[in-house]
Amino acid sequence: MQFAQITGWGKCIPPAVLSNADLETFMDTSDEWITSRTGIRERRICHCNFSDMAVVAARHALAAADLDPGELDLILVGSLTVDSLCPNTASIIQDALGARHAAAIDLNTACTGFLYGLHIGSNLIKAGAHSKILVIGGEYISHYMDWSRRDVAVLFGDACGAVVLEACQEETGLLAASIGCEADAKYAIQITNLGSSYSRLDKEFLYVGWNFDGQEVFRRAVKSMAQACQDVLEKTGLGVQDVDLVVPHQANKRILDALARRLDIPEEKVMVNVHKYGNTSAGTIPVALTEALEEQRIKPRDYVLMASFGAGLTWGAGLVKWGDGVVPLKTSDATLPPCDQTALEILEPHIRRYLAHRSA
Ligand code: UT7
Fold first, then answer.
1. In angstroms, what CA-CA distances link 36 with 40, 192, 194, 238, 259?
2. Do 8 and 328 meet the contact criterion of CB atoms below 8 Å apart?
3. What is the pLDDT of residue 196?
């Protein structure tokens, strides 16, 4: 039996910061409302393409694992804001990395994209089908944001993370996962006018809109993540007390607190960075995992519990037994192209367009 150890990790955080005070300049909102309802203080706005962020995160993950991109045999990209559908964006990333022996798959399950990718990649390695896989999760969600909707726009941000999975003989990596989908609530988060079911003749075709039932998602998120966590613990025969760190999807600090209470896990065992980046959808877990390692919150042989939920409504949890590697074997100087604009300057044309559309 072989296992799929996480041997490398990396992140890409775009430099432009959009603070709650910036949002107050064009939206009827307040820092007080946003921080008290969500815990979010600021988020990042991407100034280039999604694949640029993915390549930077991937280069850091490959360096941490000391792996040449040419050795990868599969790239899985969890995102709903990819550069392009054809060619698929995993192909663009494969080419940019020079990972010429890797198959390349885009995977859209919204916020759960990284966890789903980790589940699929780990099980392909366990089955012997692949041996070195790059799993990427991230989002360029600001590109599709409706900047006239205060109930949605304040929640999200852009970022990307990646991990390298390698076949090994020791029982490490993803020991068990539980994934699913509550499709009866699929329209609780919906991005409209994006996809072939929307008429090309509609004059508003280019206007991307959001349907969003925050309270419904909140309720279901806490319940489904807690249940999925309990399922994976049961599958592995471990208890909550064995978990060293929880790395959950970062959507809202109140959701993280409610999850910790339901699982009866102390707050200090829950990784939280939602205040810095907001909800980066498929990016939250690999970015939080990378920061947990940077902050030395993961030690060799630790048990790390991950949980996520998102549009679909997809949900999932996974229990990882960490290997020996908690320090990058090598480092990379990969970085995004320079950004000479503020977040508000980058967004200005989009904000103008959405506000005009709303008042028309
Ligand atoms: O990864 C999956 C993505 N989805 C999520 O993460 C969503 C999960 N849900 C949530 O995080 C919360 O439900 C929200 C943060 C979205 C909303 O918090 P809430 O406590 O459920 O607020 P609410 O929807 O009940 O809204 C309360 C009030 C409303 O005003 P009225 O009707 O009571 O007068 C809203 O219009 O807050 C108002 N409001 C705002 N006020 C200032 C909504 N958005 C804002 C805003 N600033 N940005």
1. 8, 29, 32, 35, 17
2. yes
3. 84
For residue 221, pLDDT beyond 90 = yes
Q: What region does 68 belong to: left with phi over 0, alpha with psi -120 to 50, or beta?
A: beta
Sorted by where each begins, the domain ranges of the chain are 3-359
Residue 169 token pair: 């003989």
- Among residues 227, 252, 232, 251, which one has the least CA distance to residue 243? 232
R_g of the chain, CA atoms, integer Å: 19
pLDDT, average across residues 230-246: 98
Per-residue pLDDT at 311: 97
Which band of pLDDT confidence, cut at 50, 70 and 90, is reported for residue 323?
very high
The answer to whether 273 is a known catalytic residue is no
Residue 163's nearest CA partner among 270, 274, 51, 285 is 285
Tell me how far apart the alpha carbons of residues 153 and 180 are, in angstroms, rounded to a whole number. 27
**The amino acid at 146:** D
Cβ–ligand 1 distance for 64 under 6 Å, the answer no
- Considering only the top CATH level, what class is 3-359? alpha beta
The strand pairing partners of 165, in sequence order, are 6, 133
Mean pLDDT in residue range 251-258: 97
Please tell me which residue in 12, 46, 249, 252 is annotated as part of the active site.
Answer: 249
Nearest atom in ligand 1 to the alpha carbon of residue 252 is 11
Mean pLDDT of 208-234: 96
144-200 pLDDT, tens digit per residue, is 999 999 999 999 999 999 999 999 999 999 999 999 999 999 999 999 988 888 876
Closest CA to 83 of 96, 92, 73: 92
Q: How close is the Cα of 38 to the center of ligand 1, in Å? A: 9
Count of C-beta atoms within a 10 Å radius of residue 293: 21
Rounded to the nearest whole angstrom, what is the distance from the C-alpha of residue 41 to the centroid of ligand 1?
A: 15
pLDDT value for 202:
62
Q: Tell me if residue 249 is catalytic.
A: yes
Distance CA 225, CA 231 (A): 10
Local structure of 135: helix, strand or coil: strand
CB of residue 35 inside a 6 A radius of ligand 1: no
Distance 214 CA to ligand 1 centre (A): 6
